[in-house]
Design brief:
Layout lengths: L2 H28 L6 H28 L7 H18 L7 H20 L5
Length: 121
């Protein structure tokens, strides 16, 4: 699989996993049965994929010499920064952590979608 194809697959993986864990965390705020260690493992995995996606994008751009379309890089790094902000707030608002990660996951999904659908130019 080429770097370009892998970057595309990982991009969609970020969109799907961020949306799913965001919905899971939001629902877990109201449904205690959904609060489990697995939620946090899946959330962490989803956020690690964001980091891998950014690293892969940088490697792909450097190795191919191609320029990213529009402000693709800005949205990619903003997505990574959003992960860091969520992580930094996790202990400051423990009562609301499910809402934080729920809305945060959906926000990351939105940023990733915006990054995927940027027009060329």
């Amino acid at each position: 699989m080429s770097l370009a194809a892998l970057h595309t697959v990982l991009g969609w993986t970020v969109v799907v996993t961020s949306g799913l864990v965001g919905l899971w965390a939001l629902t877990a705020h109201w449904v205690e049965g959904l609060r489990s260690r697995w939620l946090w493992w899946v959330t962490a995995t989803s956020q690690v994929v964001v980091g891998l996606q950014v690293i892969l994008g940088v490697v792909f751009q450097q190795s191919s010499g191609r320029e990213a379309p529009g402000i693709h890089e800005f949205y990619g790094f903003l997505t990574l920064i959003s992960v860091a902000i969520l992580y930094s707030y996790r202990l400051q608002i423990p009562k609301w952590r499910f809402l934080l990660y729920g809305f945060g996951g959906l926000f990351i999904m939105g940023l990733a979608l915006r990054t995927v659908f940027l027009p060329d130019g």
